[in-house]
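Retro notes (design track)

What went well: tokenization of the new backbones is finally stable.
What didn't: we kept losing track of which sequence belonged to which structure.
Fix going forward: every design gets posted as structure first, then sequence, in one message. First example under the new rule, 299 residues:
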């Protein structure tokens, strides 16, 4: 009877192994709470350092402004899932740290309308030992460093302003992407379709399943904005590539349901010389396999 119970427990090690909760507290610098029934240990802290007003009402952190990370599994092989409450000037620095620590960024979106300052929620997950995951969570708390340098969230990237008229030279960007872009009033846009299927219909570029990049401004002082349509296994590679090239990620979410394969979309915004921005986007296309060229080394 005892042997059978031991074998059963071994086969369900996630449920039977006790997480080192004291170690999680120590490494994250937070105090957590254990849900014994679900075998989840959850640490959290409220974003009480910045006053948030939603629809004219000062929102207490209890109402949905809490950053948290939950751990389950066993000490040597655990799963962490979490949600970070961020302001606009925190999102991309924190995302870069999370990606550098081996965590996956799985969503980035808002929860409110008419919030001041604007609040964003970035969802994270990771699989590793408890020690490594807890240390990663601790390092993701770059928030405190950012707010220590500037207590009030900024609402601009503080770069050189653009004139009203654009004059992007098309030829260098056409060469970078290996295709002619669509031009209008000195701007240029490129689009790459992603074939999929939804409700037994074939879907692709013109119905909205596409990766695109639009450029405005001048050759030396440009803006790029756009959208990547990626499969789940391509998401982290594309995010890492763009963040290495200092392209800002502004949203990660889905646009559809019941599509095959599952397609995720993320939106981005970058500033700099037009050719450099185009090369950053092309690097991410190549690294994630969206340009039709991919190698294991680039993954």
């Amino acid at each position: 009877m005892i042997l059978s119970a031991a074998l059963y427990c071994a086969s369900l090690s996630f449920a039977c192994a006790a997480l080192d909760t004291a170690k999680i507290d120590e490494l994250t610098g937070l105090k957590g709470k254990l849900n014994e029934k679900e075998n989840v240990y959850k640490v959290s802290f409220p974003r009480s350092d910045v006053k948030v007003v939603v629809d004219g009402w000062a929102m207490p952190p209890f109402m949905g402004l809490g950053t948290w990370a939950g751990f389950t599994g066993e000490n040597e092989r655990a799963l962490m899932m979490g949600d970070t409450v961020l302001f606009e000037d925190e999102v991309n620095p924190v995302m870069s740290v999370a990606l550098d620590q081996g965590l996956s960024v799985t969503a980035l979106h808002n929860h409110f309308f008419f919030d001041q300052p604007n609040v964003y929620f970035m969802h994270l997950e990771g699989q590793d030992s408890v020690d490594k995951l807890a240390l990663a969570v601790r390092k993701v708390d770059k928030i405190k460093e950012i707010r220590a340098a500037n207590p009030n969230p900024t609402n601009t990237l503080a770069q050189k302003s653009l004139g009203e008229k654009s004059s992007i030279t098309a030829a260098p960007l056409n060469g970078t992407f290996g295709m002619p872009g669509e031009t209008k009033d000195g701007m240029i846009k490129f689009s790459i379709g992603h074939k999929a299927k939804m409700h037994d219909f074939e879907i692709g570029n013109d119905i909205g399943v596409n990766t695109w990049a639009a450029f405005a401004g001048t050759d030396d002082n440009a803006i790029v904005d756009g959208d990547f349509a990626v499969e789940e296994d391509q998401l982290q590679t594309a995010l890492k590539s763009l963040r290495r090239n200092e392209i800002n990620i502004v949203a990660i979410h889905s646009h559809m349901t019941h599509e095959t394969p599952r397609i995720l979309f993320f939106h981005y915004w970058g500033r700099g010389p037009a050719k450099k921005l185009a090369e950053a986007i092309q690097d991410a296309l190549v690294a994630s396999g969206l340009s039709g060229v991919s190698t294991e080394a680039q993954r």
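Added context from the reviewer: Confidence is low (pLDDT under 50) at residues 1-16, 293-299.
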